[in-house]
Amino acid sequence: MKIPVTGFVVDSGDQDAHHSHKLYITSWNGNPVHVHAFSGVTSVDDGHSHEYASWTAPAPTGVPHVHGYYTVTSLNLGHTHLIQGTTGPAIELPGGGHYHRFEGYTSINGRNPHSHAYSGRTGNEVGG
């Protein structure tokens, strides 16, 4: 099955052989896409916590959906952790729009290898 996707690519402007491009998807199967901001503070493990903030991956607007997410925590005690996963389904807001819940565990890292729990809810949708 082929799904029509529209968007655009932005060149990073680097002149070396390892330059990069960013792909911005603007519609998926005829539906505009949107993203959500998410942020929070991890649980306290090994005597510390980490902060995180980013945007979800885009998803189609107006249909049942979830979002992927990925970010790196703040640097604390000489290390960071990866946070990645998939949100829960959309939860409608009374004034319009929606949010998603997310939760999980970070990657294992640190001088004393450990992970942190995290959970929260995204902000309202942006775009679409």
UniProtKB/TrEMBL annotation:
What is this protein called in UniProt? YmaF family protein
Organism this protein belongs to: Paenibacillus sophorae
What is an example of a Pfam family matching this protein? YmaF
